[in-house]
Amino acid sequence: MQQDGNVFRMNIAIDGPAGAGKSTVARKVAGQLGYIYIDTGAMYRAVTLSALRNRVEPENSAALSEHAKTLNIVLRPGEHGQLVYLNGEDVTDLIRSREVTLSVSQVAANETVRSVLTDMQRKLAQDKGVVMDGRDIGTSVLPNAELKVFLTASVQERALRRYREIGLSQGITLEQLEKEIASRDKLDAERDISPLVCADDAIVLDSTSMSIDEVAAAIVNLSRTKLAEAK
């Protein structure tokens, strides 16, 4: 924990499976605390987008490793959320395509990709006051984060949320999304490099029956308790 003037700041790690609401919650928490929000999933999506554009197959580990080293990924705050730049191009919307979504787990399993991005993420958090979400933040990227939250929800609820977000616009059925999310859970949990697991010292929040605002408020309260204890 670090003191900035008379204010103590910490790093908050929010992990969890696909569709649990991590990014939305993390953004709200950062806004309420005046912290910096870092969407690590967007960084992996940017690598995936570039690989697909350049016809680098996600399963070609060697080629993907070399390709990742050439990329410049920058996160910037925007009027309606975080903006993602890939080699100077705004790819904020492009990285949310269905094609990227279906390939990002394979890319994220690449050891070199994770090493390159993890180094970037740690540098962003070195001055504290960061809310970072992903799948291995509390276990690998920021193992010393002062507050760790594992945010989850049922597969059915996560699929329903994703369906409301993209289902109608992309012509995907709820059943398809349930199968894809369950498959992604399996890939994330079984990968050899930094698998999706709940850190031993993380607080588990099941958001199945909670609103985004309720989850954000719970995490803000937890952070304020931690800060009060540090004074």
TrEMBL record:
It holds the Pfam family Cytidylate_kin. ATP binds at G16, P17, A18, G19, A20, G21, K22, S23, T24. The keyword Transmembrane does not apply. It is found in: Cytoplasm. It catalyses: CMP + ATP = CDP + ADP; dCMP + ATP = dCDP + ADP. Residues 12-223 form the Cytidylate kinase domain. Coiled coil: none annotated. Keywords: ATP-binding, Cytoplasm, Kinase, Nucleotide-binding, Transferase. Belongs to the cytidylate kinase family. Type 1 subfamily. This is Cytidylate kinase. It comes from Paenibacillus protaetiae. The gene is cmk.
